[in-house]
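Hi support team,

I'm filing this because I wasn't sure whether my run with zinc ion finished correctly. The job status page said complete, but I'd like someone to confirm that the output block is well-formed before I use it downstream. Pasting the exact inputs I used:
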Amino acid sequence: MERGEGCASLTVLGIETSCDETAAAVVSRHADGSGAILSSVVLSQVAAHQAFGGVVPEIAARAHVEALDEVVAASLRQAEVSLAELDGIAVTAGPGLIGCLLVGVTTARALAAASGVPLLGVNHLEGHALTPALAEGAAFPYLLLLVSGGHTQLIGVDGFSRYRRLGSTIDDALGEAFDKTAKLLGLGYPGGPEVEKAAAGGDAGRFDLPRPLLGTPGCDFSFSGLKTALRLKAEAAAPLSEQDVADLCAGFQAAVAEVVAERTAHALAEGEWTALVAAGGVAANKAIRRALQETAERAGVPFLVPPPELCTDNAVMIAWAGLMQLAEGAITEEVVARPRWPLDRDAEPLLGSGRLGARV
Ligand code: KG4
Ligand code: ZN
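And here is everything the job wrote out:
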């Protein structure tokens, strides 16, 4: 690291508490635009939510309160950086669970006030959107498919602060659909890896499951009809043998892989991209990755997936987005926790989603 040696690099502490990961990281950005991750601490709350088959907001908020101080201290310790040496403190201000966001924003505000450094409010989705530039050196404009437990969207990333939402789910997020499917079939939480494991021994063709929105124009997604269809098939076949569960999982996975690939192909056709990038927990799924790889090849662009620790929720991406704000002189004036915060302010409201552009 060149800080303190007269080199114009900036260092920011990032804090992420929007859902069920308590995370802090220290990241530097050098004058040439390259980045260096000095530390990254992520405390997952999966065990606390396991019994409920999904994230319980009150439990998540309380767990953040209990853990955040130590997570921040550990990130500074590992980076060997003191609060006074920071150029800014970046925090996820939205979108996310309000009680969880408030824990991060309140802590970051107090730390920034105590140490006299700027407070930088970051949109969580912007963190995901800018990660490929840090992790893969991806050049703008690239197409990002973000598929996690809370988000499913196709975002055109034209540059810092220049995002276009090309498509989004009109009901469940894809990770949520995996989790609900796992719960329905008596598998564990988080459901994605369990469904993938079960699907490995299954026959994807045995159950005829729908491919929602396939063959229609546009880049939006829908998964609730597929979930209902799967529930009806499961009820009709009950009691379910291990093979039945495997076949249902394989069928579900094949259906979503086909839909995701087709919607992504539509978005690829809508612009000139340097790459297709996938992020979010669901991007770990091998069947989906394979389908996306083929889609990218057909469109003639490289397919990039940042390493898992930068793909799922983390604070490195929040620090990096904060660093971009500092570098571009675009510091958020007022940092308030916002459960809903569309990345693309010009995007049409999501009619039919019941969310009117909220969960974008
Ligand atoms: O990005 P992420 O770690 O965080 C949040 O959304 O908070 O994504 C978690 C989601 C969960 O819904 C999980 O079931 C899903 O990603 N997931 C997967 C796989 N691994 C994680 N879905 C499908 N296949 C996987 N291998
Ligand atoms: Zn996320």
